[in-house]
Amino acid sequence: MTILKLKYRLMFDRHLSKGLRGTLVLLAATSLFACNQSNSGVSDASSTPVPTENSAAIALEKAESKIESAPMITTPVSNPDLLKNVSATVYKDANCGCCKGWIDHTQSNGLSSTAEHPKDLSSLKDRYKVPTEMRSCHTVVTTDDYVFEGHVPAKYMEQFLENPPVQAMGLAVPGMPVGSPGMEYQNKFMPYQIMQLNKDGTTQVYVDIESVEQQL
């Protein structure tokens, strides 16, 4: 942890101006730790995925390049018919705030879901063959055994399930991008990629999300 903090400090000193530094620290903290919120302030490290040093650096780099032009986030448009024929189980930490935000987003778009809180989320992700670099705070498994990892917008869940590629087992949004469904924060948005998870363990870009409007 000490080494990680030192690298963050060096990154800030080399690349960030004083005017942006405080904002980016807040964005990074929101993106990386919002899903670990707990009423007691203590969480089980074995049950909650910890973002890697590399993912944190990438999040900070994206924030630095995009924060000045970040668009205003509007209330997502809900379509109760979008996922009305889809049922799924959401596996998450019991105290994950952004997971609850994502559940609200998908249920308002018709998803029928129940939440479970396994003691060891990492083992569950192993079971469903979610690559380590694709992981986020929650894992969703439909009754048809398709896997959706992290803050995937309902719009793209429906698009995928309407015509799933033969080689695919699901979609993932790695990490916790600010501005994705369930990760809304003021008017901030960081572009991100929705990745396709393939049955052979490979991944590929499913779609690039460059604006808030693409999620609606």
TrEMBL record:
<feature type="signal peptide">
    <location>
        <begin position="1"/>
        <end position="34"/>
    </location>
</feature>
<dbReference type="InterPro" id="IPR007332">
    <property type="entry name" value="DUF411"/>
</dbReference>
<dbReference type="Pfam" id="PF04214">
    <property type="entry name" value="DUF411"/>
</dbReference>
<keyword id="KW-0732">Signal</keyword>
<protein>
    <recommendedName>
        <fullName>CopG protein</fullName>
    </recommendedName>
</protein>
